[in-house]
Protein 1
Amino acid sequence: MNTWITITDRFSRLTERGKDFNRRTRPWRKRIALFLAVVGPGLITSNVDNDAGGISTYTGAGAQFGYTLLWSLIPMTIALYVSEEMCARMGVVTGKGLSDLIREEFGFRSTFFVMIAALAVDLANTVAEFAGVAESSQVLHVSKYIAVPLAAIAVWLLVVYGSYKIVEKIFLVACAFYLSYVASAFLAHPDWLTAAKATVIPSAHFNAPYLLMLTGLVGTTIAPWQFFYLQAGFVEKRVGPRQYKHARLDVLVGSITCMVIVFFIIVCCASTLNAKGLTSISSAAEAAQALVPLAGKWAGFLFAFGLLNASLFAASILPLSTAHVICEGMGFEAGLDRKFKEAPTFYSLYTMLIVVGAGIVLLPKAPLWKILIYSQVGNGIWLPIVLIFILLLINRRDLMGDFVNTWIFNVVAWASSIIMIILTLILMYAAVFEPASTGLSSAFIHRLHWFRSF
Amino acid sequence: MLHATEILGAEAHDSAGNFVGRVKEMFIVPDETPNRISRLLLGRGQYRPLVARYDQIGSVAPGRVQLCAEESALELYQPNEAWLAMRKDLLDQQIIDTNGRKVVRVNDVDMQEHKTNGSVELRITEVGVGLPSAVGRLLHGIVPPMAIRRLQAKLPARSIRWEFVNLIESDPLRRVKLKLSSERLAKLHPADLADIVEELSPAERQSIFDSLDEETAAETIAELDKRLQTQVVEKLDPEKAADILEEMNPDEAADLIANLAPEKSREVLEEMEHREAHEVQELMRFDENTAGGMMNTEIVVVGEDATRGEVVDYIRFHEISLDQLDNIVMINREAVLAGTVPVARLVLSSSDERMGDLAFVPLLSVKTDANENEVYELFDKYNLRSLTVVSDQSRPLGTITVDDVVSRLMAKV
């Protein structure tokens, strides 16, 4: 009897310890926490794609061609996912940023030119983001001379004085604000059946304006700088190969949400502007104003608010990403978790980009449209180079080990890269040589007009 | 002084004046001399490359190497893992500046010529990480070397002396072959070392931990952020991990083990010495966010009647770690907490004074299940440096020290 009590007592103590142990390790809660710890870079990067310029292009696409461009969103999602996933994988496996890897594997000079391109192109893009702020503030009846400096200061303070955790949380909230486009779309009462059909069934139209708009869509959605930001994000979060699955899911969710937002923007414009014959709408702000009589005050307000959010969001990430990329590649210290004194080049570059970017928008007679041409050309030159660097690096077994591309993935990745490269080259050609001949129809010209309206 | 970039790609001629090939790579053989360029790799197009040894080099100038041996005297090139390659292992790679305590990227490598009977030895003096070396890399081959030199002279120099350079090699086997020591790293403050390894990629980090002694590794791991701690420990083999965890404070070790994958934590606990493993397991029973989860069980417990001399002897005899010994815990005859004696008071007292007379009032303690916020409030209110944690029967179990409080609060900011 006594022995029995001792045994049961011992046994119950052991189970007790087991329970305690489990309480400490918390398998399911830990799993969710792990996923949340990884989430961020993919979702944020993909959403920043829908920046001021992007939204103008989507608006134009919807206004001009109605639902007929919606089918391109599915292949674009795949291309976006494939290219971003490679960067995520590289960051997770090597623990190094993209520019670090380019520097170590391709030497100083290649890196230097990639960095110069980054600086020039991103500066032009930053100007575009602040122009987006100016534009949306006009719809909301605020002078751009107040809105733009305020935005610049807010963005600068956030990044310089916020820690990575805080900054990322604010960015995630900004991602949620993109839902205002979903609301606008619902307020516009679109023909959902037609929209759904147009998304699933491809309908090619072989005329120049249509093709150029298609190119514009691809060009604004897949921008070279985003790869650097994405990879740096995963590296800075210290996501290791063990959490690769979470990282991949993050990228997948990001790519899909990004495209879902694009879908709603296009649907909103198609069902209102295009249906009422307002096909020459060339900017998001015009669209917002045109929406008021068609779909109500709130639809227009939400549309403008979405643009403001997108511009602010991209205006804080673009300069940040650029400063990161350049410092990493050139061997300066970088990162939000450092203080100004520890990483002076990083913070100076970041500040310069914001000050110059916002400053140019405030100049009364700035040649904004020229800057836009150069930014587009720069993106065009830069994207193929970056994509090729990525594809070369990801297939290096000494870097990636078993995480190199499978051959199927390689086929998809090379194919989508080559298509993207061809499309951006077309866009570049159109931008430089024939801006007039493409008429008011190209995405590019839309953006030109949008700039000239300042 | 010469730059590595000026010699890489240079034409090499033999003693008869014939063109031999171009310098494709420079090797340092750490086994022989850690700072000497011991071999030059001479590429010859489709022919097998040759190797010129340091005593076969006659003179060196930017873009031109004159050998003091016949071409036929040069050896054919055989790859050797124990040779440190300039282009592959140094240029553009990250190194640790052990003097400046940070990770930097190499732009160029500076060398000094040493004339020894008839030949010239190149000895590495500094590693260029600043603007001049960057300009050199960019303009090399486009602008004549002299013009580059003139430009470089005008720019603010930033370079690291070769003896302060610690190379990073992610392959542990090669690390051994290259004779890379972590001696200098081990001399850094663990907090600085932690900052440095946080910047490296996981593989590089791992190879550094593999090469550190257990004590330094334990101190450094304790300074890492939580995610990294688990990453690093999970990749170590269980035996080494156990040795490192034994060196850590039991409370930190318990937190760390609790965050490991269940499989791994079991392995590590099995490998640990019985006493330490037991202590850690006891601590793991407590929730991380309570006083029990925060406490450190390495404490000195003495009776009220013990004299100062006895206590000092006890501490000496048991080799108790002194870094966090602020207070000595005192118990009465019922083994209930009776007070704490600050070590500072111990210093000033005479050797026959009783602990009961030295004890600090008020008597402060928390129960193991006290919420972490209660702990913070007590520390704040009474300006504590340590606080005793007691069981339900008021028996002392451990102490919470102020460094744990600070790092927890910092994690929340």
Protein 2
Amino acid sequence: MKLPMNAALPARDPAWLGRVFWIGAALVLLWPMLVATEFRPWILFSAESRGPTWRFLAAFVPPAMDVDFLALVARETWRTVAIATTGITLALVIAVPATLMSTRVLSVSAVSGRMAPVPAMLRQVLRWVLVLLRSIPELVWALVFVRVVGLGPTAGVLAIALTYGGMLGKVYGDILESSDDHATHNLLANGGGRLQAFAYGLLPQNAAELTSYTIYRWECAIRSSVVLGFVGAGGLGQQLDNSTKMFAGGEVATMLLVFVALVALADRTSGWLRRALA
Amino acid sequence: MKPIRTPLAANEPYRLPPPLFDARCKACWFSVGLVALVVASFWSLDLQWSAFLSWEAGRSMARFAGEFFPPDLSAAFIRKVGAASIETLAMSALGTLLAGFFGLLLALPASRTHEDDPARARAPTRVLLNALRAVPELVWAALLLISAGLGPLAGTLALALHTTGVLGRLFAEAIENAPSGPAAALRTQGVGPVRVLLYATLPQVLPQLISYALYRWENNIRAAAILGVVGAGGLGQLLSFHMGLFQMGKTATVLCAMLLLVAAVDALSYAIRRYCSVR
């Protein structure tokens, strides 16, 4: 079957002008970006970079497999997981009270009409604090705490606790406020306390979602805690940094493999738990 | 005298609550495991609470925070921070752009578009994407410094590598979940795979791909701001340099620039997504 060709088909693409304009605009925008990032990828293949890169990559095979080193990696891997877990636990210590205080659904004065001005202001201030906590990257917090408490896992734990406390507090609040507030409202209107209204009205319908989000954040915290090692907060990241600086390709290869396996494991665990909750 | 009978409850008669722990209850084992993990974590890390919660630490913390004020607002330094902000912005945008391109390129072999599609490259491509994704940007940057040298190029490539893994996987999911009708209609007419992609699959998933890419751009601006800590250019490099020299006023300016930049990109990306979804 052939298309009837007598229909008035435009001779050329009707959107032609727009397309040419946007492609031109994109190129004009792209140029300063390429300049600003000193984007010269051929440097990667220049003679003076090829040598060290090749030697580094060649040292990847075979990965370092001696017993002492593997024991060290195992210890540091556990530290990475422990830093993430401790950090998330402390983040909950920040996030749970902050959520309880800042959730609008749990306001007694808002049960009848508008919320009173003082609680409304308190809630707004708390939200801003949470936003501030999470908009400073955890690496910056870690740099600050390394100055205060010295090198070691404490800095990493505190950095994760503050950033993730802000994130969890914000998202917990969003989850609670987007849920059905009928039961909570009733409990408060009939003289229930705020904690009672939370435990019997809000928590039952949101527990699965809250838990699932927390588990997801734990998974993210494991990734963060590796990164924090690069500024001296201990764990796998610190070892990886040391080995990279010493051009010890075999050790880097082993740690990268362990790291990919760790992330995959956390991914699986978190996925399995969240499916079980759903 | 008639014995007083206790009235029966209207609902189910009184029953004991379930025991707190039951060997067959998965949730119980999970809770026990969780508590064990948390306790073991706290116990195995030599956390210096005394160093952090002591009066001395509090004072040094307060002194440290006090040094941030006043931020250095001299014109010369502001200009330097401005240049670094533009570098950070360009790194994140270019990194995301490259990742969008290569992510789409890798998403095509990583997706099974119809039932008879053998998709032999699917498993190996997904392994590659997962490996790219599992290594964080900062680790990529630290590794790339060896071949790309100090500077924003290493940072841009690091962002591109990690984001390629993330976007490739998201794109592959989007392509696999697209309604199969239009593509099947073209395929039964004998249209080749490239044109099926261009005229059926891609137009359907393009809005979703753009939205994913914008979302990753928001993440990448945060990552680009800190990549400099290992020497990969941008605001982070300035931050670690001045913090290393204990010039806290300058550090405060850099931190403010970071927060402003992130907020601006968030707002811009939100506006673009609003605009795209309204149309």
Protein 3
Amino acid sequence: MKLIFRSSPRAMSDTRDRFAHVLADHSRALERVAASYTRTASEREDLLQDIALSLWTALPTFRGECSEKTFALRIAHNRALAYLAKRGAPGSLRAPVDVDDHEDAVVATTGKNPALAYERAERGSRLLAATRALPLAHRQVITLLLEGLGHREIADVLGTTEGNIAVRATRARAALRALLEEDGEAR
Amino acid sequence: MNTEMDRAEEIELAAWRASWMQLGGKDGLALELAQRARKAGYRHRAYLVANVVTAVAVTLVMGWLVVYMRGAILAVFFCAATCLYNGVILTRLFSDRIAPAGSTLESFVTMTRERIDRDLRWNRFARRVLYIVAGVFVPWFVIVTMSRWAIFHDSPMWLVYGCIATFLLAVLGSLAHSARKQRKLLAERDELDALVAERTLL
């Protein structure tokens, strides 16, 4: 376990403020990443807590080499990988899942027009289910692409080259398209 | 033709992004996460303090026992063994580091693997200690009980058998826990390797 000590009360307070600020800005993105790695609400909560704790301990080492969002997403993906390894093979999300299995509380249903909100929620839910059904290498790239990161930033998060990400992104998009079409036909 | 395809793909990605961004947004999540992380930090500190206090208290009691028994060999041996054990526990507690999640994936994976290997080594050490405890102290316990049977005979039997049973159960329970932990760590290492292999596939 990492020791959680700060050098002084002032440094501690600075870190606390920064932590609250980063979470306020990116908690929704972290929630989506956690949802793409887990199947149930309790698993998602566990993973989110792991991510938040890692962010809290890693924040003092952040020197602004990348954007805060990239840093937070890198932590989220690293923790998610460790989480999957710890949870072990049984029921692991490495195994493909059924695209129809997308009952999920992560889907937002707010909006002025309830019908439109429902339709959006349904689309988001199908997309999340399809993302979960992708192999890990594709899922990582597609979730980061959907978060709005460019190839260079994704390469930075996943610790690989831009060329590798470009190839993976093309294949991941094709796989996601096929899954969504398959799901659409099945309806 | 290519440009048209690219444009279509960009439109498709933008549509996916719009749907994706609708996900999440649980009320008060940021605040809840901040509070939970802080609480976990405090819990960790309390855990460290509890370990240090326990180690100091046990060492003081053993020291007192050595003085009280006027340096009897057995008391000195137990005191030395306890001090050694406490030293190992505290060194591990204060020198152990988990992989910093803010580092690159490669170094995160390397450090996670190192952490698992370290835990495996520690677990093997703990099991060996338990085997020694089970192999040396259990027979010693039986011999002492038999040789001083006259003393024990006058004491309530439930106390004698209760002490032996508690001791044996504690050793067996620790061995079972250690074996389970070993299996979990090995499974974690295999799963980590499999995940790393899978994520590097194109």
